[in-house]
Amino acid sequence: MAIQKLLGRYSIGTGDRFAHQAKAQLQACIQALQADVEVTPVWNKSNREHLIIGSEPTSVRRAADAAVQSLGWKGAYFCDADHITLQTVDRFVDACDFYTIDVADAIGKPAASQDVAAFAARHANLIGEIALPGTEEKFFITAQTLRATAEKYLAAVQQAGSVYRHILAVKGEGNFLPEVSMDETDAAQSPVELLLILAAIADEGIPVQTIAPKFSGRFNKGVDYVGDVVQFEREFALDIAAIAYAVRHFGLPATLKLSVHSGSDKFSIYPAIHRTMQRLGAGVHLKTAGTTWLEELIGLAEAGGEALMLAKEIYREAFAHQAELCAPYATVIDIDPAYLPAPALVASWSSAQYTEALRHVQSAPGYNPSFRQLLHVGFKIAAKMGDRYLALLRDHEAIIARNVTENLFDRHIAPVFLGRAS
Ligand SMILES: [Zn+2]
Predict the structure, then answer these.
(1) pLDDT digits (tens, 9 = 90+) for 73-130
(2) Which domains does the chain have, with CATH numbers?
(3) Which of 148, 142, 209, 146 is closest to 175 using CA atoms?
(4) How far is the C-alpha of 417 from the C-alpha of 231, rounded, in Å?
(5) From the CA of 253, how far away is ligand 1's center (Å)?
(6) Beta-ladder partners of 43
(7) How far away, in angstroms, is 15 Cα from ligand 1 center?
(8) Virtual CA dihedral for 48, 52, 56, 61, nearest 10 degrees?
């Protein structure tokens, strides 16, 4: 099948919770293009975010289209129905041309035993040693690995197939990009498991463009990677090798690549990601979201006056409602309450003190990852403020846009796609 618009080798997912930063985000892709690297923008927003904010998928499409028109962007761009399931996909079919089919909940659910047996029989040729071009390592697959992986993942992949066919029936072949995501689960998938998952995805007939496994280590929201960077780099290379093998042997699209979820702010692994892509000639989709909302807050704090007061009020409310705000994100944040400043103290802060605590510059003495993570999950407070918040975004558009673009380009696109230290 032909995808009419290509995602390209490099792409970045950006979240724009309040639909005011699409232009500033696109500006970061324009800066990449000026450095001769095309990075395709994909505006993603999950059903969960839409519910919390009270927005509709069409608002993401409108903001993306307007930004593209206003800045004269000639490349491809997409709107991603992020983390959808059969239950939530329908409201996205008009607005989106990229679908992140989330089947993490079905991992470990049993598939029909005859399906598991059929999978094991169909792929019996994978048993043994598999050499992987581009790495010195090999995969060793036994009959037991084949069965155990099918028992764990086949039901999830079958579910992805149902969702894919549901979207296909409405949108038609070639009119959307399917991603399969398995990142929101407890255990990481090994590169061997990824290879077998891709075999199952090919069996389901899904022309998957991006695949989002759960990598080892912690990918907390809005802060740096926590884990063994050397091990990450090794696994990342093996995942890319597994994809290359799957493209060649299972007939998956040649454009298939990894999607790194919760990909914002993982500064310590960006050099490894860049190096590995260069070495293996691969691309990546780096999915970010809430990092932009934090730049809105930084811009408001920097603006001072009423805008700084509002940024402080948002922290005060987030502090008061931390249990409720953190609950949906419990597995992907690590807030140390001992490091959360008292709202009364924050009330006395200058613009510089607030922005230094929040901005993701780890070498800054005032940088506070607990403060940052609490505000990361605190966007519901701003959503509740409604037009009071939005009016200040409009009043301080220039200062906020500068922060949004700089964060996305300098701290994300440049190290991942251009190989520049941030
Ligand atoms: Zn995800």
Answers:
(1) 999 999 999 999 999 999 999 999 999 999 999 999 999 999 999 999 999 999 999 9
(2) 10-109+152-290+409-418 (3.20.20.70), 305-396 (no CATH)
(3) 209
(4) 21
(5) 22
(6) 14, 79
(7) 12
(8) -70
